[in-house]
Specification:
mainly alpha
Length: about 210
């Protein structure tokens, strides 16, 4: 995950490359437009491409630029699978397809990994116990560590260490008009037909409503 200089940028780049390869490898399975219905395309992406993209990200400290690259690749692949322009707004599309943002997935996995470390006697647990005791004593964290990432999320490191409650999946559904109308357009029978009215309306609809909400 790290190069000889101790930098994790190569891992992020590798994830981006592998995700693209997985995506285009599904071309014959119908992930590209025109193909099956959007829910099938979203299922293929979430089962094969997204796990490839997020693999190991909870173990490294990604900066904002790296996270934007990961989100950008996901957004572009989703829009490409739907036959939409890369300039189309994607927030409503992701919610309509029930696809989580990469950052939300990574944050949930960080909390899960942090909790599991405290359950098994290991060098990682002893290190985390030292970092936690130091944080309790002086309120300081070591940048880039798992503990630092938990604190930066606004979570209680003590509670997350000893609370075995399952970290819930981030809800990506949102009962607002923008998402509901996107769902209506995406899941009509005509959406999979090139140049259909429904397919042409999705990017126009998203862009107009997104601008109106600014």
């Amino acid at each position: 995950m790290f190069n000889r200089g101790g930098n994790n940028a190569s891992h992020v780049t590798n994830r981006l490359t592998k995700c693209r390869q997985s995506f285009y490898g599904l071309g014959n399975a119908g992930v590209l437009y025109p193909g099956p219905t959007p829910d099938v395309q979203a299922y293929l992406y979430k089962c094969i491409c997204q796990p490839t993209l997020k693999f190991g990200l909870e173990c490294i400290s990604s900066n904002a630029i790296q996270m934007r690259r990961l989100e950008s690749v996901q957004d572009r692949l989703i829009k490409q699978s739907l036959g939409l322009s890369k300039l189309s707004h994607n927030t409503a599309l992701l919610k309509a397809l029930n696809i989580e943002k990469i950052e939300d997935i990574v944050n949930r996995n960080v909390l899960s990994l942090y909790n599991r470390i405290f359950k098994v006697e290991s060098p990682a647990r002893r290190l985390m116990q030292y970092l936690l005791s130091r944080f309790i004593f002086d309120g300081k964290t070591v940048p880039g560590t798992l503990l630092d990432r938990v604190v930066s999320m606004g979570e209680s490191p003590t509670k997350r260490a000893f609370n075995s409650q399952h970290v819930p999946k981030t809800s990506v559904t949102n009962n607002d008009g923008l998402v509901d109308s996107s769902i209506h357009l995406l899941f009509t029978d005509n959406f999979t037909k090139p140049y259909s009215q429904e397919h042409l309306l999705v990017p126009l609809h998203s862009n107009i409503l997104s601008v109106s909400l600014i």
